[in-house]
Amino acid sequence: MTQAPTATGNAGAVYLDIDRITKVYSTPTGTVRALDDVTIRQRPGEFLSIVGPSGCGKSTLLMIAAGLSSPSSGSVTAAGKAITAPRTDIGIVFQSHVLLEWRTALGNVLLQAEAHRIEKGEADRRARALLKSVGLEGFEDKYPHELSGGMRQRVSICRALVHEPKHLLMDEPFGALDALTRDQMILDMQKICREREISVLLITHSVAEAVFLSDRVIVMTPRPGKIDRAIEIDLPRPRRLIDRDSPNFTRYTREILEMFLARGVLRESP
Amino acid sequence: MSEDVEAAVERARRSFERREKFSVVFYPLLAILILLVIWELFTLAFDIPEFLLPKPTVVLQSVQQNAGLILQESWVTAVEIILGYLLSIAVGIPLALAIFMWPFFSRSIYPILVASQAMPKVAVAPLLIVWFGFGILPKVLIAFLIAFFPIVINTVMGLTQIEKEKIYLARSMGLSAVDTFFKVRLPNAMPSIFGGLKISITLAVVGAVVGEFVGGNAGLGYQLIVANGAMDTPMLFALLFGLTFLGIGMFLLVELAERLIVPRHMIGAGGGKEMI
Ligand SMILES: Nc1ncnc2c1ncn2[C@@H]1O[C@H](COP(=O)(O)OP(=O)(O)O)[C@@H](O)[C@H]1O
Ligand SMILES: [Mg+2]
Predict the structure, then answer these.
(1) Sign of the alpha-carbon dihedral angle for B169, B174, B178, B179
(2) Which residues of B fall below an 8 Å CB-CB distance to A?
(3) CATH of B56-273, one of 1.10.3720.10, 1.10.580.10, 3.40.50.300, 3.90.226.10
(4) What are B128-142's pLDDT values in tens digits?
(5) Of A146, B72, B94, B208, which has the highest C-beta tally within 10 A?
């Protein structure tokens, strides 16, 4: 349940099925092709990361997966159902915390519970337990402006989980945090995913973060975004921060790095 | 241990706030006092005639002598201001909601409204007197006309200027349109709406006084005209002070309402952004 389903054991099982989607934006200065023939199949319970240079359509992809935007062509289904409207059975975390300034940490988490009409006592219990699990016990009644950047993002993660969604979508959730806070968040994320049955789609531009957390990493090409390669991360769990320096780990990060160099996403002067 | 520290921090914050509050009142008062002294000495030193610039002490005497009249006339003007202001809220907020909700309004009414601001509304005062006579109604209407525009603009701004992620989030939570409005959009707009309400209350004061100038038989504005005709400059100043206090009082009332409704850390921020 907490382990990645093995490829053979779950060969046919697909949770999120993004099938040959293309997204074209029309702007006053012409059209922008953000996604080009992208196909992604996420297995149930899989932690899937997408890395790629900025502007390659990662956020667009996430918005489409959330049903907040629709593809220009192609189809998206989740658990067998075609997505035609915003999905309300998911949790979303954006790069900015998007907390409501007039609600406390607890109040922000409870907004999700209110939207899902979860009974008050139960909602309160769940929200407090979640906040506690990410180290925010004692901060329930603080307003966002009284919290640090990392704390705010933790609150928004709790908000994305309080209704116990089957799917968590995150768009560069740790991008605005300092390195140390980031590491802690990554550990927290790993713990959260081990404790529940949840599929995660993580957009990030940190290769190390993607490899550390994921069962599979999808690398995208520069715009128009296409899938370059999908890499299965075959590392035992739980993973520890020091593992990042182990040869097994760096084998993956190097592979991705070399792809970026080959595509000109990164350039080294001779 | 950590509770001790927290308590100490809390104490420090309280005492800091007390000192802040004290200096907010103290320094401006001191400055005013110094200015009054300079004014008094200046008029004494250059022997300035009273009808040009009366000494503060003479103005004070005039205030004392006419206290009853000033209070009574203040009341008249205050009623005009409050009625005009309430009318501008009653019309401005629903109009802003309509502009926000129905594209038809934002395409038709809104541009007209913005363009109409080029016309100085004070200039409409004589026309209103012709239409509505010399009673309280034209004053209320002028106060309303001047005051309602910032309310409309700021309310529309507040409702439309919101992080798009907040709206995405509301949608992905499955919040209903009504809940999205009342739980997300409206609270997000509150600081901006109160920004408009505070501008408007000062404009409503101007509106009422202009109304009294043009066609009044009571109120501080009317008394200003009377004192002017009588060349009673000390009285002019006395009335001016009365008007100033009235304006400040009105503003403070709106600010009080803001404090009760908007969380303190959001006051003054366009959408709850942090201020340095
Ligand atoms: N609403 C939009 N209208 C027009 N162009 C857009 C819009 N959203 C994104 N784009 C363009 O699509 C491309 C991909 O954007 P995005 O999905 O945000 O990329 P990423 O998240 O990988 O940085 C970019 O070139 C961006 O300018
Ligand atoms: Mg992005």
Answers:
(1) negative
(2) 163, 165-166, 168-175, 179, 183-184, 187-188, 190, 262-263, 265-266, 271-272, 274
(3) 1.10.3720.10
(4) 888 998 889 999 999
(5) B208
